[in-house]
Amino acid sequence: MWTSQNQWVSLKIMTAKSAMSRELQHLKHLERHSHGGLSSNYIVQLLDSFTHEGPNGIHQCLVFELLGPSVDQVLADYHEGHDKLGAETIIRMSTQLLKAVSFIHGTGMCHGDISGRNIAFSCTNLLHVTEDQLFESLGVPEVEALFRLDGAPLENGLPNQLVKAAEWFEWIDEDDEDMRLLDFGESFHRGEEPEKLAQPGTLQVPQTIFTNFFDYRIDLWRTGCMIYAFLFTAYPFWYLGENEVLVLQMIGFVERLPLEWEPEWKSMQTRSNHDLRVEGKQVDGTMRIKFAEAECDPILNPLLPVTQGLMRFLPSCRITADEALNML
């Protein structure tokens, strides 16, 4: 509970080595460009920040607005139940994510790690409830003591107990709450791209596989993947540790590989232990077929050209977030 405002909040405690938080710097940068607050641009609202000195050093602590479950968790629940989000909810989620990306890019930044685990729902319905009411939705915290199997005392710096992460089993407000893009630890300014980029396998951006160059337009590919996931409750590609198989899926799903990437692709095929062939009828067609088979509500029809425009192999060919918004 954030006592100064008498409301529940989300608290993020950084590791001690991250005391000078890049994420805080990036959020402050976005705040300076936001006239209506970060939440008005569907970015998680930073309420406060402070440092805490513990046995491992000084921790940067970030106080955010209360957040509900991640998009990944909600989509997994729908997928497990063989169900789908409502058409209006999908359009609203897609629009809000695109507005968040448009705002970030407009400030000269790139988020760098757009994924379902870094997008959550707001949680306005529970801001001012009692502790008992909060636990009715969130579940009572499960706490277990931490101990060594050999009975020796714990090393300095280790906690005495562990608390299980919240799972939001009773949360059903995705139709009423807004999106929040969070976790700006991998973000960077244009012209200050890092040497490496942390990416989950299923969401790897193709130019990071075929070239040594990437920029803010990685966000556009990842946003396209997320819009697809909103619609189908699953990501467009699966990944089992081999880029060759991932690229094969991309070629069959998105479009033909750029000519300048063909030499590297042939080298990858030579090194692979898999039969890497794409049937001609699949190239540049699977995405259209997938959308057609979904028998979508007419309100969802714009999502195909939007997703196709965002998920182009060459960054220069991808539509911007603003262009995607105009199509919706």
Automatic annotation (TrEMBL):
Keywords annotated in UniProt: ATP-binding, Kinase, Nucleotide-binding, Serine/threonine-protein kinase, Transferase
Entries under InterPro entries matching the protein: CLK_kinases (IPR051175), Kinase-like_dom_sf (IPR011009), Prot_kinase_dom (IPR000719)
Superkingdom assignment: Eukaryota
Gene Ontology CC terms, in alphabetical order: nucleus
Residue span(s) of domain Protein kinase: 1-328
Biological source species: Penicillium capsulatum
Gene3D superfamilies to which the protein is assigned, alphabetical: Phosphorylase Kinase, domain 1, Transferase(Phosphotransferase) domain 1
Coiled coil spans: none
Designated name of the protein: Protein kinase domain-containing protein
Molecular function terms from GO: ATP binding; protein serine/threonine kinase activity
GO BP annotations listed: regulation of RNA splicing
